[in-house]
Please model this.
Amino acid sequence: MLFLLFLGFLYFLPSIIGRDKSDAGLIFVVNLFLGWTVVGWFIALIWACAADTRPTPVRLVPVVSAGRFCGQCGTLSVSGAHFCSSCGRAV
Ligand SMILES: [Zn+2]
Model:
């Protein structure tokens, strides 16, 4: 019985390794349906061990330099403006 559990664990080892990957679902499908052919099992294992090709999330940095904040009223004026659009003070 313990041996069967060990075999099951070994069979789904690629899915367990690749569970955090972006193609975890596909790895599991290949593992489940092609794992019994030893070649399919190795493909799933290599896939699970391969580097995740998911691009790193790009952080959006707000561009504050596009305009200037008015020292009088705090309104953000458009870039290149010399006077505040709200109160008329020079920025
Ligand atoms: Zn202003």
Q: What stands out?
A: The longest strand covers residues 68-69. The CA atoms of residues 62 and 76 lie 13 Å apart. Helices lie at 2-11, 13-17, 24-34, 38-49.
